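pasting for ref
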Amino acid sequence: MAEDVRGVEGEGRAAADRDAENGALRHRLALAWVEAGSAEKAIPELERALALGTGGARSRVLLGILEQERGRIDRALEHYEAALALDEGQALAHANRGAALIELGRYGDAREPLERAVELDPSAPFPHLCLGVLFMEFLGDARLATEHLRRYQDLGGQDPRAAEWLRRRVR
């Protein structure tokens, strides 16, 4: 990773400094920072790329994920909603919006975006996990929780908590 960061610091930063108004270059630099594990440096580059008109819905989703990983849930939610305003068909934006709403304690609001994510991409494990947790822990529907947690596992989901919740359900 140290080599990756040096490469981003050197070549990428120099190119971005030479062409500060190149949104595509800023976007590539941000993605390089993400790959190098430096979300703190990626976030302002993504924001700059978006301000320059580059990136669109996918960049908004990525910004939301990076903000959510840092515990800035309100900011993450803003990015997911902005992504969906640009492209309603972004399953990942719906799924992460639902997860953010759960983190904010807005359980009733979380269901719709998670179900929309499943509708858009039934093969994605993450929204099934979120729906399973939502129904098991917060909405009190063990049948739906079991259905989603099993589907999560069937799709290759590896979170050990899913197996634990299913074991508790069988008891």
